[in-house]
């Protein structure tokens, strides 16, 4: 009877889905009768908070008519008895590219530059801004992909076009098989954004900071557009319309979550953010955004570390991410962060259940897991009135399963979508559990024991006698088909693999093919002998899987606890004050509450920690005026001749190991500059090297704003071909400056007039700040003629140059620099590495210093910054600069250039406690920084570093063993490939979006 009812149900659900009115003609007779079904005696999970035992679900057409215990079944309903079975709401994926054509980014190669959109029509200037894209206009159901998703339990998905920075409007659809018109749950779920320009042919943006600037500018353009009537722009029109609906942002990595949220806060938006599952690394910062998240279940595979040489390629961060990523969802739940789960990014949809169960093993509760695949995605998509739970009036999207949905061994039998039945696994499969006589060609008789849930899900092989064997077997079944794989251990090396099917049910008989380890094949049969006696498992308290500590930053030299500020009294040192007191012998330095409390002899400091620095030297921390560490997604935005709108502040990378390495060289403050790809580059950011802190916490509070200008070969790009970006000559470089400042002056005048509807221009805002002495220029420079040119342009247009950096021909123009109050930050002895530095001399710093210019040595190089103390020593070698003055080249003088000498650069009461203890004279090549304090926090300690290295070696050894165990247990692995961070310098060029797209297709 049960089979008959199921067959009737299949006929009705397949032929009479639901009654509807339609404009589509029918070639034949109309049949608009709704399917009416009563699913009885099931455990019905209405939602994550309500489960009904022995309940009934009534479905008519595509809607739920009723759900509850003790319901009477109305006349005309087909009754389906689901005793012992479970009913759950079908899953919802809030982030999918289902039903959209796949588009690939064309390799850029050598071609002419593209400055404005090539898209025909009244659209915006940049193709990466495409809010006019509506998924509803390009969606088409994909039966194959829909089938894969339904088998994983999904009944509906939110479809997103993943092409561009402003991506347009997504839509929620069901995974039913019907005309596209009948699949839409909501045609406009959210406006979508990212930092990836996708398939845009425009050169701009090439960097992460450029993507951020373009999106910010688009928000401002949209506001201006709504106030004007002179121009029609489809892109801005659509962008403005979309601001009242939910806002989704795809932001891979926790740092990009923070960047996206910062944009959202600027424009009054609370994004719902699709992440990549790394939030556990900075859970507090992520929580502070207040954002709801959509997180993937794409956990890294274990690395194959059997070859020790290859294993050395893996970083500690990669190893720890493998171990800790499965606990991400649990960390979010514990922190109270609202999140949905997505199958997006999985190699196979079937991996969804494996990974969600792994997340549960690592602390995610089943209640939260169910919410995150039903109620939460429904809520954030605005479709809770239709799907996400099993209630009267909602669409009949539900699953029939053998057991608790999250239990290992559970089988999803059916997935009903809009009242239509889709079979995932046969519901009436035979119960195979029991003990069998197993006969395999060429093998002595064996015993097969099948146990587990749902009619058999676990198998074991046993043989008694002299050659006794007992082993577990890999066992899978699909209906009446079974696959068994096992190793007898005493057989030739390798597994015996059986593939067969149930041929008779009384007695149970399984027959099929056997594949032997030596490559030969044969037959096998398994005949039912008796019922298996399963030993009841002792319930043990659940504990989360053991794993190593979370460290900050998440990688080499990270600490389980970020170092704390200390009150310290450094005694009996040689103290280089950089003040009028000069160098003090046998003196003390007192650090309290992040400041220098006192400098002198025989100081007493109460309960402060005493450090005996006898025979050692104490100095202010080194300040690097020109650095490119701690940045993400590119250091140059070189697609336009002026990129003053981009900000290094937006891309600070607190995880860069060079922060730690440079602390080990006594550096405490770094000026992070835009590169030198264009005449007017981006806004720079001054940071303190607070190792372990989040990006915003690295920023030097209250510091003046700076901006990077550049001269020379780098900016004119004449070797880029005939289609290169302007300028391509030195005359063009000069004209770029003249044009930009002329435009900025006009812009400033126009915006000052009350009532003018002036489009806010982030690029010109930065230039106006220069004119108002609110932002200051650091200019990359080498050649005398060009330095003279920019001084002349500055004089004629009324702006000032703060610093010429590099300036290896500074000795030729030192008098003019002195007259204009321009500082010089140079290299100690770099020369002959390119044509325009052919006349560099190692006495450059000495000459500028003697003329009275504030002179500094900078690094422009992650490695050189580690030994800027030695670079300062070269000033003594080349020209006999006094040692105290030479030391100021890397401490007080750059502080003066950066307008922070009131806070850092010397040892004086009231200044920041940025202090270094050296083992010897700091100008010596033998000197080591033993301790480096930033704001009184010992971020570098040479003794603790040795302990940290040892403990992290132990941690890596533990993780390697854990990966070896994982491989032995059958888990899939990946080859150990290194993940070396990108090292930037002035000339580094890259395309951020192109690099993102190398590893994935854009949908």
Automatic annotation (TrEMBL):
Molecular function as annotated in GO: hydrolase activity, acting on carbon-nitrogen (but not peptide) bonds
Domain Amidohydrolase-related, first and last residues per copy: 314-401, 837-933
Presence of the UniProt keyword Metal-binding in the record: no
Membrane found in the keyword field: no
Pfam families the record matches: Amidohydro_1 (PF01979)
Signal peptide positions on this chain: 1-19
Keywords of the record: Hydrolase, Signal
InterPro entries documented for this protein: Amidohydro-rel, Metal-dep_hydrolase_composite, Metal_Hydrolase, Metallo-dep_Hydrolase
Classification via PANTHER family: ALPHA-D-RIBOSE 1-METHYLPHOSPHONATE 5-TRIPHOSPHATE DIPHOSPHATASE (PTHR43135)
Protein's name according to its UniProt entry: Imidazolonepropionase-like amidohydrolase
Biological source species: Pedobacter cryoconitis
Phylogenetic classification of the source organism: Bacteria, Pseudomonadati, Bacteroidota, Sphingobacteriia, Sphingobacteriales
């Amino acid at each position: 009877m049960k089979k008959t009812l199921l067959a009737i149900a299949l006929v009705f659900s397949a032929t009479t889905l639901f009654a509807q009115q339609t404009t589509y003609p029918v070639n034949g007779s109309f049949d608009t009768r709704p399917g009416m079904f009563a699913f009885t005696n099931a455990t019905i999970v209405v939602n994550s908070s309500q489960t009904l035992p022995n309940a009934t679900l009534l479905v008519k057409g595509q809607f739920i008519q009723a759900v509850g215990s003790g319901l009477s079944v109305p006349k005309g309903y087909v009754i389906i008895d689901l005793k012992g079975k479970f009913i759950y709401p079908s899953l919802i994926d809030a982030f999918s590219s289902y039903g959209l054509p796949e588009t690939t980014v064309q390799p850029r190669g050598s071609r002419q530059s593209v400055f404005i959109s090539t898209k025909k029509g009244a659209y915006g200037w940049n193709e990466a801004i495409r809010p006019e894209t509506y998924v509803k206009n390009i969606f088409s159901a994909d039966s194959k992909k829909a089938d894969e998703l339904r088998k994983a339990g999904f009944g509906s998905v939110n479809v997103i076009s993943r092409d561009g920075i402003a991506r347009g409007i997504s839509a929620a659809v069901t995974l039913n098989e019907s005309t596209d018109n009948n699949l839409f749950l909501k045609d406009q779920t959210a406006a979508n954004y990212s930092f990836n320009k996708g398939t845009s042919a425009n050169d701009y943006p090439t960097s992460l900071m450029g993507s951020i600037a373009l999106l910010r500018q688009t928000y401002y353009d949209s506001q201006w557009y709504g106030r004007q009537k002179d121009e029609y722009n489809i892109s801005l029109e659509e962008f403005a319309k979309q601001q009242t609906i939910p806002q989704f942002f795809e932001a891979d990595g926790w740092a990009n979550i923070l960047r996206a949220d910062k944009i959202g806060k600027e424009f009054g938006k609370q994004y719902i953010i699709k992440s990549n599952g790394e939030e556990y690394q900075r859970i507090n910062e992520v929580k502070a955004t207040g954002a709801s998240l959509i997180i993937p279940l794409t956990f890294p595979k274990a690395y194959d570390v059997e070859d020790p040489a290859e294993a050395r390629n893996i970083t500690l961060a990669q190893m720890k991410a493998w171990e800790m990523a499965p606990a991400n969802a649990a960390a979010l739940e514990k922190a109270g962060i609202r999140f949905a789960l997505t199958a997006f990014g999985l190699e196979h949809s079937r991996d969804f259940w494996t990974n969600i169960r792994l997340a549960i093993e690592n602390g995610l509760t089943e209640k939260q897991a169910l919410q995150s695949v039903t109620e939460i995605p429904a809520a954030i998509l605005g479709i809770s009135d239709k799907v996400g739970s099993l209630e009267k009036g909602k669409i009949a999207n539900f699953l029939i399963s053998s057991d608790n949905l999250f239990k290992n061994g559970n089988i999803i039998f059916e997935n009903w979508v809009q009242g239509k039945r889709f079979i995932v696994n046969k519901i009436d499969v035979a119960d195979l559990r029991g003990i069998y006589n197993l006969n395999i060609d060429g093998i002595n008789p064996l015993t097969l024991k099948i146990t587990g849930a749902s009619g058999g899900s676990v198998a074991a092989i046993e043989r008694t006698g002299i050659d006794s064997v007992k082993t577990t077997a890999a066992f899978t079944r699909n209906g009446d088909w079974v696959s068994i794989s096992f190793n007898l251990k005493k057989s030739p090396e390798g597994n015996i693999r059986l593939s067969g099917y149930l041929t008779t049910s009384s007695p149970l008989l399984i027959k099929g093919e056997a594949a032997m380890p030596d490559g030969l094949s044969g037959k096998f049969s398994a005949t039912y002998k008796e019922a298996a006696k399963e030993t009841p498992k002792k319930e043990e308290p659940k504990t989360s899987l053991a794993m190593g500590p979370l460290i900050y930053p998440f990688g080499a030299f990270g600490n389980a606890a970020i170092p704390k500020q200390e009150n310290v009294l450094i005694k009996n040192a040689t103290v280089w004050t950089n003040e009028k007191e000069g160098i003090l012998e046998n003196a003390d330095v007192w650090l309290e509450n992040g400041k220098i409390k006192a400098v002198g002899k025989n100081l007493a400091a109460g309960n402060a920690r005493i450090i005996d620095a006898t025979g050692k030297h104490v100095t202010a921390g080194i300040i690097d005026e020109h650095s490119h560490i701690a940045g993400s997604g590119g250091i140059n935005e070189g697609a336009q001749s002026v990129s003053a709108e981009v900000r290094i502040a937006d891309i600070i990378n607190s995880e860069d190991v060079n922060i730690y390495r440079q602390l080990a060289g006594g550096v405490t403050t770094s000026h992070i500059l835009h590169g030198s790809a264009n005449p007017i580059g981006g806004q720079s950011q001054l940071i303190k090297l607070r190792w372990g802190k989040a990006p915003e916490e690295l920023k030097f509070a209250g510091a003046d704003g700076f901006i990077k200008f550049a001269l020379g070969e780098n900016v004119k790009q004449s070797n880029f071909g005939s289609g290169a970006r302007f300028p391509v000559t030195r005359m063009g470089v000069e004209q770029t400056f003249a044009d930009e400042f002329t435009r900025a002056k006009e812009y400033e005048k126009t915006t000052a007039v009350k009532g003018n509807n002036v489009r806010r221009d982030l690029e010109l805002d930065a230039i106006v700040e220069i004119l108002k002495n609110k932002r200051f220029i650091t200019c990359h420079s080498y050649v005398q003629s060009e330095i003279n040119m920019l001084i002349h342009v500055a004089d004629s247009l009324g702006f000032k140059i703060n610093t010429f950096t590099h300036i290896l021909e500074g000795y030729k123009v030192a008098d003019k620099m002195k007259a204009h109050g321009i500082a010089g930050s140079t290299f100690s002895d770099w020369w002959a590495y390119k044509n325009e530095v052919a006349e560099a001399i190692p006495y450059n710093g000495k000459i500028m210093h003697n003329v009275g210019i504030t002179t500094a040595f900078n690094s422009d190089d992650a490695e050189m910054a580690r030994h800027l103390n030695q670079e300062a020593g070269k000033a003594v070698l080349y020209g006999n600069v006094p040692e105290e003055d030479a030391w100021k080249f890397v401490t007080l003088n750059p502080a003066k250039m950066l307008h922070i000498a009131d806070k850092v650069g010397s040892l004086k009461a009231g200044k920041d406690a940025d202090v270094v203890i050296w083992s010897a004279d700091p100008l010596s090549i033998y000197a080591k920084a033993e301790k480096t304090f930033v704001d009184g926090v010992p971020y570098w300690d040479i003794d603790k570093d040795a302990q940290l290295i040892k403990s992290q070696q132990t941690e890596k050894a533990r993780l390697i063993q854990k990966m070896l165990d994982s491989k032995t247990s059958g888990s899939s692995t990946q080859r150990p490939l290194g993940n070396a961070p990108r090292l930037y310098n002035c000339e580094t060029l890259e395309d951020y979006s192109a690099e993102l797209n190398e590893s994935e297709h854009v949908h």
